[in-house]
Amino acid sequence: MVRGEVKAQSTFTRFSAMKREKKRKPDDRRPFLAHHRDLAGVDLRCSDVLRDIRKMARQERTPELRMARELKRSTEACRSIEDYEKLNRIEEGSYGVVYRARDKKSGEVVAVKKLKRETEKGGGFPMISLREINILLSIRHPSIVDTKEVVMGSTMDSIFIVMEFMENDLKRAMEASKQPFSESETKQLMLQLLEGVMYLHKNWIIHRDLKTSNLLLNNSGELKICDFGLARYYESPLKLYTPWVVTLWYRAPELLLGAKEYSSAIDMWSVGCIFAELLTKEPLFKERNETAQINSIFQTLGVPDENTWPDYKNLPGAKLVFTKQKFHLLRDKFPPSVLSEYGYDLLSKLLDYDPQKRITAEDALRHPWFSDTSPACNDMGLYFSCRNLRRRGFYLFY
Questions:
Q1: Which fold has domain 29-165?
Q2: What is the pTM of this model?
Q3: How far apart are CA 105 and CA 85, in angstroms?
Q4: 168-391 maps to which CATH number?
Q5: pLDDT tens digits for range 213-268
Q6: Catalytic center residues
Q7: Where are the domains of the chain?
């Protein structure tokens, strides 16, 4: 090859490269690329987490604008855990350990959750923790615990979620109380719970582990949903998901019978179980395994049939032999002295067997029970001041 041919080939190569560069356009389908420059000054330890969050965002197909905001908040949040002073350990759950801490700069007391690092088989950050970070950084509501930032420890194994601090969780508050909540107090708690659940469902999120220990309660009576380790986005049409979600006592019957196609209705069953527990201080259905749990439900609500639950016979677990009890005995557990007619009607709709008929959070908030002005349902004189909490036997835990 002569020199002139080499020069011509070199010129042609440069021209082709320029032409390809000119044709290259930003990918509008991935808005977080527009924020790529924001990553320039971020600690390299954060970059792996953010990359995995972006990957998670694509898999979950979350709304683009929300994910753009989520990524921006993530990049701004990568401070060090050394910026916080650990005060004491609060509790340990399946997916992390929670501490009470103080921000050294602002002096604010916060809750810090250290995520348990159990890597996936193919490497990378665990999917459950990624999903939790992704959801927590993309939602904000008065009835959902506020996530302030994600901070890093000295190694990649040390990743922390910083959240607002709440004095109690609902389960321990009930255990410490000498008496159950009154119907009026239950109404106030249920309003806050349903508002938070409605917000999640309108944003296509199912919590999948609603229970009293995952509801935080401060000394002003404010209730907030927490622990999104099992939460995920869902779609329409529905996909197949694992039925092994939700703590057993709060698990919907369709999950107990092996359903893999489900949506927000499983959260509403859990809300119904929480509603009942607020009035009695005891879980409504409290068994040790799935078979005993579904039997306990059938013994209280009766065995479903084609009228109460048309799809019941199509579920994998429906072939098993259960109790033959056919009568609805829920009212016996909640007589009028405990729960008014309107309240009982709402509870029955939350515990409807058929997920298609089970009341939604939005419709539940419109239920007449919340506008009932009878004295038993409208006595708001006590409520949750610190003095009244102590008078009723609540402990201020921290």
A1: Phosphorylase Kinase; domain 1 (3.30.200)
A2: 0.77
A3: 10
A4: 1.10.510.10
A5: 999 998 888 999 999 989 999 988 888 999 999 999 999 999 999 999 999 999 99
A6: 209
A7: 29-165, 168-391
